[in-house]
Amino acid sequence: MKLFYSRPSPFARKALVALIETKQIDDVFLEEVKIGPMAPGDIVPAVNPLGKIPTLLLPDGSSIIDSKYICRYIDEKNQGGDGIKLYPEGENIWEALHLEALADGILEAAVLLIYEIRIRSEKLRVQEWVDAQLLKINRTLNHLEDNIDQLLENINMGSLTVAISLDYLDFRHDSIGWRKNHPKLSAWHDHIKNRQSLNDTYPSD
Ligand SMILES: N[C@@H](CCC(=O)N[C@@H](CS)C(=O)NCC(=O)O)C(=O)O
């Protein structure tokens, strides 16, 4: 198996964290790529027409795309293995998927804001659109602050993705200052960020 990833990509980081948590990181060849929406290169589009990372290439030449499905695949591959279970069984699955979707939503808005700054020329930028993305991020942070018990309960792909999304805000959007109005989330993050899978994959350029 081969994982296409980049060090700054928070979605690719989800796949790396899933591989470390399930102790399968040594089973996968990691291929680092440099891509962006306007510069996908040739390598990733050859195996994923969307040209996005993460993309997981399987030995039979097929690929799994989108971080949520890659993480599900990694979890399935680990049936009976000694790493943690990334997606709980039974009714608890819905809470984990809900958390993962919320954190993915923070990441989508945060990544769009970066593209806005890097790709769109200043005179074409629309402040209302930027504000709408910031509002999505803030509303979701408020929701997580109000529902902190869900995060305290278990480590799964939902809570790990929330940690990844908060790290990404620290990495790319320090000016948002998310900790100020979210003290419970901040305390939770201070604790979970020391987990080895998160420590080993902190984003960098
Ligand atoms: N929903 C996708 C999003 C993946 C994504 O947007 N990845 C970015 C890097 S952070 C990317 O590949 N961007 C290149 C592009 O948009 O063409 C997932 O969860 O994997």
How many H/I helical runs? 9
Count of structural domains: 2
CATH class of the largest domain: Mainly Alpha
General form: globular
Order of helices and strands: EHEHEEHHHHHHH
Percent helix, as a range, is: 40-55%
Q: How many strands in all?
A: 4
Walk me through this protein's architecture.
- The protein starts with a strand and ends in a 6-residue tail after the last helix.
- Helix content is 55%, strand content 7%.
- Helix 1 links the parallel strand 1 and strand 2 (29-32).
- It has 2 domains: 2-77, 3-Layer(aba) Sandwich (Glutaredoxin); 92-199, Glutathione S-transferase Yfyf (Class Pi), Chain A, domain 2.
- The model has no long low-confidence stretch (mean pLDDT 96).
- The chain is built from 9 helices and 4 strands, in the order βαβαββααααααα.
- It is α+β, with helices and mostly antiparallel strands.
- Helix 1 (10-21) packs parallel to helix 3 (67-77), helix 4 (92-119) packs antiparallel against helix 5 and helix 4 (92-119) packs parallel to helix 7 (157-172).
- The chain has a 4-stranded mixed sheet with strand order 2-1-3-4, covered by helices on one side.
- The radius of gyration is 17 Å and the shape is globular.
- Glutathione binds next to helix 1, helix 3 and helix 4.
What is the fold's blueprint, element by element?
Blueprint: E1 2-5, H1 10-21, E2 29-32, H2 43-47, E3 55-57, E4 63-65, H3 67-77, H4 92-119, H5 127-146, H6 148-153, H7 157-172, H8 183-192, H9 196-199
Parallel strand pairs: 1-2
Antiparallel strand pairs: 1-3, 3-4
Helix pairs in contact: 1-3, 1-7, 4-5, 4-7
The structure holds glutathione.
